[in-house]
Amino acid sequence: ELTNLSTSINTESDGLAGTMPVELQNLTDLRFIILEEGATGGTIPSEYGTFPRLHILDLNFNSFTGSVPVELYSTPFLLQLDLNDNFFSGTIATEIGSVQFLQFVQFEANRFSGTVPTEVGSLASLRKY
Q1: Element of type H or E holding 10
Q2: How far is residue 67's CA from residue 85's CA, in Å, rounded to a whole number?
Q3: How far apart are CA 20 and CA 23, in angstroms?
Q4: Cα separation of 38 and 36, whole Å?
Q5: Mean pLDDT of 78-95
Q6: How far apart are CA 68 and CA 45, in angstroms?
Q7: What is the pTM of this model?
Q8: To the nearest whole percent, how much of the chain has pLDDT over 70?
Q9: What is the CB neighbour count within 10 angstroms for residue 58?
Q10: End-to-end distance of the chain based on CA atoms, in angstroms?
Q11: Partners of 65 in the beta sheet?
Q12: I want to staple 85 with a disulfide (CB 3.0 to 4.6 A). Which of 61, 74, 75, 107 is the partner?
């Protein structure tokens, strides 16, 4: 069982491979997930939208696919969503406008379609998009 083991997972530039386990959702104190520059892939589990204290989700320069789960935009204290340089597809959901404290978003170098939702304009704390 992975309950309350850590507040941070950081494997930046470690070459971590595989997929993101759904069981990480059991780490209820988790504040930072930083898996930059690895070989991690698959989809982001929708259950990751249940992290009550997550501040940073940084998955750039990996091999993630699929759409960004709408549930992720329910993370109450999310400050940074860094998903650039992957293979995400689909559209950016309008629900992104409900992430009250979001300050930093990176989506470039993916396979998204459509336009940036106008709801991004309601992100009062946003400093970089």
Answers
A1: strand 8-10
A2: 14
A3: 9
A4: 6
A5: 97
A6: 9
A7: 0.89
A8: 93
A9: 20
A10: 37
A11: 87
A12: 61
Place of tokens 């069982």: 1
d(CA 108, CA 23): 28
What single DSSP character describes residue 89? E
What distance lies between CA 51 and its chain's CA centroid?
A: 11
Under the banding of pLDDT at 50, 70 and 90, the label for residue 80 is: very high
Q: What is the pLDDT of residue 1?
A: 42
Tokens 């940073």 correspond to what residue? Answer: 56
CB 60 within 8 A of CB 38: no
